[in-house]
Design a protein that fits this description.
This protein is α+β, with helices and mostly antiparallel strands. The chain has helices spanning 39-50, 118-132, 144-176, 187-203, 219-227, 240-251, 256-264; strands at 4-11, 18-25, 30-37, 59-65, 71-77, 81-92, 96-107, 135-143. The strands form two sheets. A six-stranded antiparallel β-sheet has the order 4-5-6-7-1-8. It has a two-stranded antiparallel sheet with strand order 2-3. Helix 1 packs across helix 2.
């Protein structure tokens, strides 16, 4: 729980990690190249740079290079937890590099790991912001706190969406009848809902004997129906003059779209 892992690729200046130093050889009279390793210095500076921006007072400890080469490990201690931060650096040809940051908290109090960790949220964001200065690309790999938060929030959003749909359906049913979605003027939403409803029923057989039109509408469509759409009477009555005008449009050889627009403009609101 609360494991965070992200990765950076394509460093702007490779010398921040490894620097080629040319040295003269008096004995042979030739220059020799020596590679100076700055990886520990670099990641240590990153951690020092973010310390003033963290939420709580904390103590930074450098645990050293553990388990493998270029694998620098730090510990951030707060009143309630210890955060183990590992920087794993890999290099490739043409002076390209990758660095993976792994953050694993260990909480002092039992059960606290189930709570949202604001310190961890701030920590990962500050590291990302600082590293983005030196690297071209950041990829998120693992973010358990965000996964848990999204799961909880989506559940609440889903409940709210259903309540909105239910309220809108009750109001429109009262004013337009039970088949309000098939009202004249809502054709676009009706056709979309029918298509999605059929798709849902193919995937979930239990919906086959249920009217799924309402749950097939997106919340955006529901709001458009309520605040933007107009509903018209089913029958369109033309006057004699309008009928003559429509006949001229049809016999003139013009596109059917002109006749359609002529008729639609003469619809009456419910």
């Amino acid at each position: 729980m609360n494991h965070v892992k992200f990765m950076f690729n394509r460093i702007n200046n490779y010398d921040l990690l490894y620097e080629d130093i040319m040295e003269g050889n008096q004995e042979w009279g030739e220059n020799t190249k020596r590679v100076e390793d700055h990886t520990k210095e670099y990641v240590t500076q990153v951690m020092k740079d973010i310390m003033p921006n963290l939420l709580n007072k904390s103590t930074l400890k450098c645990l050293g290079c553990l388990e493998r080469i270029a694998n620098e490990v730090f510990a951030l201690e707060t009143d309630s937890a210890e955060y183990k931060i590992t920087f794993t650096i890999d290099t490739f040809q043409n002076k390209d590099a990758r660095i993976i940051i792994d953050i694993v908290p260990k909480y002092i109090y039992e059960g606290i790991e189930k709570c949202y960790d604001r310190y961890l949220e701030k920590l990962k964001i500050e590291i990302k912001k600082r590293m983005n200065v030196d690297w071209k690309r950041c990829d998120w790999l693992i973010d358990e706190p965000s996964e848990a938060l999204c799961t909880e929030l989506y559940s609440e959003f889903f409940k709210l969406e259903n309540r909105i749909r239910s309220f809108v359906s009750r109001v429109l049913t009262l004013h337009l009848g039970v088949d309000w979605l098939s009202s004249c003027g809502l054709e676009k939403y009706y056709n979309s809902a029918i298509q999605l409803s059929e798709t849902f029923k193919q995937k979930v057989l239990e919906l086959d004997d249920i009217n799924a039109e309402l749950i097939s509408l997106t919340l955006e469509s529901v709001f458009e129906i309520v605040f933007k759409c107009k509903v018209y009477e089913n029958d369109i009555v033309l006057s004699r003059a309008e009928y003559v005008q429509l006949e001229k449009i049809l016999t003139s050889g013009k596109e059917n779209e002109n006749a359609k627009n002529f008729i639609l403009k003469r619809r009456k609101n419910c």
